[in-house]
Amino acid sequence: MKxxxxxxxxxxxxxxxxREDAEAFIEYIKTASRDEVATKKDIERLEKRMDKLESKFxxxxxxxxxxxxxxxxxxxxxxxxLIQWMATFMIGQIVTIFALLKMFDKI
Length: 107
Known about the structure:
- By secondary structure, the protein is mainly alpha-helical.
- Helices cover 85% and strands 0% of the residues.
- It is rod-shaped and about 120 Å long.
- The model has no long low-confidence stretch (mean pLDDT 89).
């Protein structure tokens, strides 16, 4: 028996368990917990997977930041084009108004 099992076995016998009952109980716990309890290796594998996920999230964060910069630059270009077109149409309207006023001898 391993040290932990031996200690548990002793404690069970001190609590009134028979030798057979204590052995059966320890074997049941070992069997039941085999798939339920994480080992150090399980935890290390999980930590490695979490590190990989963290790395992927950092990469995604950088990609989203770059995308945000591109969207802002695109929005700035669209705004500049809209202002350019608005100015062009305003100048066209002013010229048209002056032409109409001149045509009807109002200036």
